[in-house]
Amino acid sequence: AQTVTQSQPEMSVQEAETVTLSCTYDTSESNYYLFWYKQPPSRQMILVIRQEAYKQQNATENRFSVNFQKAAKSFSLKISDSQLGDTAMYFCAFHTNAGKSTFGDGTTLTVKP
Amino acid sequence: EAQVTQNPRYLITVTGKKLTVTCSQNMNHEYMSWYRQDPGLGLRQIYYSMNVEVTDKGDVPEGYKVSRKEKRNFPLILESPSPNQTSLYFCASSILAVRGDTQYFGPGTRLTVL
């Protein structure tokens, strides 16, 4: 079984600044995938970024990047140049290639003008 | 438009009255999954399906049933709903789970069991 821990229930950041959301996980799997999803007030789940565990290079999508430390089982999300539209709940998730998925409890991010 | 649809979007029912929440995707995805989301918690996996006629239990399968008779549909059945099944439910699909493909989520179904 795997677990995903997000230790920051709530965070805030000023518009245009940078913020990092933390995520750690525990697993005995060797082949897995890590994701960050965003859930705005509409409740729709939106993919932010995806990382393949066998790739050492950290994934990047525009203003979003990850710091993937496989040995430490850490997968943090960095949001640069924060925008008001980034205000949302962010979930870290672990997917195995056998179909099982585990989500963290989420971090509520508020971007302040 | 590529999408995952769920029906109904909102449902209020009473204890013990059987109900089905439908999920359909038009992307020819092989993998589908059901989750529930409760306040203060992340999504928890109920059941998933790697392909037609193949289903497996997730972390919280008690009180739920699923079937996957055709690729596009993956209904969630509550045979005898109870108040502790009041939750927000999401269906998701992806091309293939074996390569960790991105899951696309439906809009959610808010279920209240009185």
Describe this structure in words.
The complex is a heterodimer of chains A (113) and B (114). Chain A has no helices and twelve strands. With 113 residues, chain A is an all-beta fold. In chain A, strands 2, 5, 6, 10, 11 and 12 form a six-stranded mixed β-sheet that branches. A four-stranded antiparallel β-sheet of chain A has the order 3-9-8-7, with no helix packed on it. Chain A has a two-stranded antiparallel sheet with strand order 1-4. Chain B has 114 residues and is mainly β. Chain B has strands at residues 4-7, 10-13, 19-25, 31-37, 43-51, 54-57, 65-66, 76-78, 87-94, 104-105, 109-113. In chain B, a hairpin with a 2-residue loop joins β5 (43-51) and β6. Chain B is built from no helices and eleven strands. Helices cover 0% and strands 48% of the residues of chain B. In chain B, strands 2, 4, 5, 6, 9, 10 and 11 form a seven-stranded mixed β-sheet that branches. A four-stranded antiparallel β-sheet of chain B has the order 1-3-8-7, with no helix packed on it. The radius of gyration of chain B is 13 Å and the shape is globular. Classes of the chains: A mainly beta (113), B mainly beta (114). Chain A binds chain B through residues 4, 6, 32-33, 35, 43-45, 47, 50, 52, 91, 93, 95-106, and chain B through 31, 33, 35, 40-45, 48-50, 56, 58-59, 88, 90, 92, 97-100, 102-103, 105, 107-108.
Write the layout of secondary structure elements.
The complex is a heterodimer of chains A (113) and B (114).
Chain A: E1 3-5, E2 10-14, E3 19-21, E4 24-26, E5 32-39, E6 46-52, E7 60-61, E8 64-69, E9 74-79, E10 88-96, E11 101-103, E12 107-112
Parallel strand pairs in A: 2-12
Antiparallel strand pairs in A: 1-4, 3-9, 5-6, 5-10, 7-8, 8-9, 10-11, 10-12
Chain B: E1 4-7, E2 10-13, E3 19-25, E4 31-37, E5 43-51, E6 54-57, E7 65-66, E8 76-78, E9 87-94, E10 104-105, E11 109-113
Parallel strand pairs in B: 2-11
Antiparallel strand pairs in B: 1-3, 3-8, 4-5, 4-9, 5-6, 7-8, 9-10, 9-11
